[in-house]
Amino acid sequence: MKLRFLGKNSTPGDSPTLYASDQDSYVIQGWKIFANDLLAQLDVPKGQTAVEVPTELFEHLTKDGQLSGEIRKFTAPIMLVTEQGTCVLQGPEMHDPEALSQMRMPDYETCIEVPKSSIMALLEESSGPDHPRTT
Predict the structure, then answer these.
(1) 19-67, pLDDT tens digit by residue?
(2) CA nearest 112: which of 11, 12, 17, 4?
(3) Which residues contact 58 (CB under 8 A, 6 or more apart)?
(4) Which of 39, 42, 50, 83 has its CA 20 to 30 A from that of 111?
(5) Angle (nearest 5°) at CA 123 between 126 and 85
(6) What's the predicted TM-score (pTM) here?
């Protein structure tokens, strides 16, 4: 799998990153979930994992031709929205050696692969109020 870097939200020691793949998907690199209060709210099936990223990370979708990167729906693959303004996404954990070799990932981060259509659905106007779970 080939990746195209779209952007990252970095502060010293943190590096959530967004990539577009050649497989009609996005690869989202974020923080592993260690907090018990977050883990208790998730039901992560085998083969999947969850990552936490700032919602601003999706502003980089404009570099993939999207008019906006503003999240308008907080539905799957977004599983939680935290009080700190981050979101927890769930999806298949990335194991593709070619893709992983294109990334710099600290031990406290991991990445998931999400279909582009799932992310595009998050950008659409909602027909009613969303009530994301906050932690």
Answers:
(1) 999 999 999 999 999 888 888 889 889 989 999 999 999 999 999 999 8
(2) 17
(3) 18, 69, 70, 71, 119, 122, 123
(4) 83
(5) 95
(6) 0.88
